[in-house]
Amino acid sequence: MPNFLHTVEENPSLGSRLEQRSGLRLDRYVSEILRLLSRSQIKARGLTAKINGKPVKLSRPVKQGDILELCWEDEPVQYIIPQDIPLDIVYEDERCVVVNKAQGMVVHPGAGNRQGTLANALYFRRQKNNESKVIGLRPGIVHRLDKETSGLIIAAYDDEAHAFLAQQFKDRKVIKKYAAIICGTPKEKKGRIETFIARDPKDRKRFAVSNNGKTAVTFYKVIKSWQNYSLVILRPKTGRTHQLRVHLRHIGHPILGDPVYGHADKNFPTATLMLHSKTLAIILPGETERRIFSSSLPERFNAIITKLGIS
């Protein structure tokens, strides 16, 4: 039984996008057009495919009218250690939770971060609220924030809710706004940054603007400026890894305190990353209208703004 059955161009919007990519490889069609799996997930989860009932290689070009049968392995269950970690809960019901994540908290367990993450805390909360002792539930976190980025993040408490929320992110229907203090002041008070972003060939842990890669779009608006700094609101249309940090560096105004894409600042030598997820607008499971969640600027922002106002 295939995980996904699809007729190429049965959806007009997908069809118009395919016409711009004549002869697109099947693996690229899955990742870029259908957005079912990323290129790395395609390999890791063993994607296999049939086109018009016949097994094919993933390099096979897709054509209008093709019937795709796609199969892949389920994502491995992550065994999470439940931990009673205090969280700043902005909203919660039986289906989902919105958290104002603290700076420095890792979202998902990984190498060197098996405990103390948001997933550990949410698993404990879910287990406690449901009085469940089941071990091995997948964390229901729908999207990610970098460790040093604070602010709003949403997670689901059941698989159906997770799929409902995740689809909105895939369809780019979620509105996210970030506050940032950046170095300098852009010439234009508001604007759009659009580039390709790919892994930095010189450092695989970093990302950079490239001549190829994935399209990334960010809108910005300057809220207040001082001599050498500005408070801006950023609205990413896409959700690439490190997108906001890469884009601000690209236009010559890196985010203050960014240890990867910024530079040492003599005025604020101890500043940490000044990036905060301030607003999240999304439709919750079982509802039809967007809810808008907001978070106040954290103290690290207020301290720097106060100092800038005095100087």
What is the topological layout?
Layout: E1 4-7, H1 12-19, H2 26-33, H3 39-44, E2 48-51, E3 54-56, E4 67-71, E5 89-92, E6 96-101, H4 118-130, E7 150-156, H5 159-170, E8 175-183, E9 190-200, E10 203-210, E11 214-225, E12 229-236, H6 243-250, E13 275-283, E14 290-294, H7 299-310
Parallel strand pairs: 7-13
Antiparallel strand pairs: 1-4, 2-3, 2-4, 5-6, 6-7, 8-12, 8-13, 9-10, 9-11, 11-12, 13-14
Structure description:
The chain is globular, with a radius of gyration of 21 Å. The strands form two sheets. Strands 5, 6, 7, 8, 9, 10, 11, 12, 13 and 14 form a ten-stranded mixed beta sheet that branches. Strands 1-4-2-3 form a four-stranded antiparallel beta sheet, with no helix packed on it. It has seven helices and 14 strands. It starts with a strand and ends with a helix. The chain has helices spanning 12-19, 26-33, 39-44, 118-130, 159-170, 243-250, 299-310, and strands spanning 4-7, 48-51, 54-56, 67-71, 89-92, 96-101, 150-156, 175-183, 190-200, 203-210, 214-225, 229-236, 275-283, 290-294. The chain has three domains: 4-71, Roll (Structural Genomics Hypothetical 15.5 Kd Protein In mrcA-pckA Intergenic Region, Chain A); 89-170, 2-Layer Sandwich (Pseudouridine synthase), CATH 3.30.2350.10; 175-310, Pseudouridine synthase (2-Layer Sandwich), CATH 3.30.2350.10. With 311 residues, the chain is α+β, with helices and mostly antiparallel strands.
